[in-house]
Amino acid sequence: MPGAQPFDTQKSSVQYLQKEIFLTRIRFTRRVLRKLSMKTRLLSLYDGLVLGKPIVTLLLVFLITGFFAWFVPDLKIDISPDSLVLEHDQALRYYYSIRARYGSDDYLIVTYTPKRGLFEADTLKDLRKLSDSLAAIKRVESVISILDVPLVESPPTSLDELERHIRTLEDPDTNLALAERELRESPLYRNRLVSASGDTTAMQVNFRYDAKYENLRKSRDALRAKELEEQLTPGEAKELERLSDEFKRYKAELMVQEEADIARIRTIMDRFRDRAELHLGGKPMVVADMVDFVRHDIKVFGIGVLGILALLLIIAFRQPRWVILPMITALGTALVTMGFLGLAQSLPQHSSRCPLPRVACTTSRCRTALSGRGDGSQQVRPLSLYGPHHHGGLRLPGS
Q: Closest by alpha carbon to 195, among 310, 277, 72, 94?
């Protein structure tokens, strides 16, 4: 019949669409099954190689952890300008140019406030002993104090006399009253060497110029600057890598030596604290103290994080085994992380807490891997790869 043809065509189109939908579902199901099969094979492989051989797995984990733990003492906290700013920072370049023009800022300031008068003979002798003790340190080049600066108004001196001899505070012909007045009122010395009240003086402890450090830094920075403008030759790239490694090692050695020198300076200052009030300042001291502060912060903050995590695990699980296992795993992860950073020889100050988030993440993963709490009960049920009846040799809590 002529009117039946549209109905047959519509029916054929519906059947075709139903067939395509059916085939699409079959293809999708096959892809899902292939992925599930691959996942099952990977899980089976993991179960056979890791869970199926617990002694070998634990031995391998202990060996890896022990290997990285060996390098934990090599971890150095770097708070030098190179680690706090970008490699080619313009402010850092300006800082180094100022140092090259006006001299190094590697010096310390020691303030000395005697219990007696500053310009009394006994006080000046004590100040000389302190100055000589500081100057005896190997890396100290000079110590500048009120005993060493030239005096031109104590009494007034002509230019001819200055050419023959420069008077200082320790000279026999120096008038102490005039010297005190000159040191307190002179624009060169007031609030620099002597306070306005005249009861406190400052000493500048200058360290020796380290030519090796500056030469290594300049050579490295020159190759870095050239690398920004053009491609380095293989020889230059190798030289840049060598200079960077050597500079990093030498800077670490220098920081250790600087910490030892500052500790020795503080020991010397302690011998004079019964006769005067002393304080220490300067960039090298700030760097050394900052390293100590960061180390102390890592210890305190790390112990606090571990304590809080242990408390949360105790509240959540209430069984010692499910507290001890995550904590041991987290500590092992922290050792591996710090040992890996120890291989790099240094850690920037702003990244000094980086192992602690690893501890928290590892503890969270251990909690997810070891337990499931779907029924709201307090019992802890470790998860298994193949269902509740396959425990892979893991003894359930309460079993």
A: 277
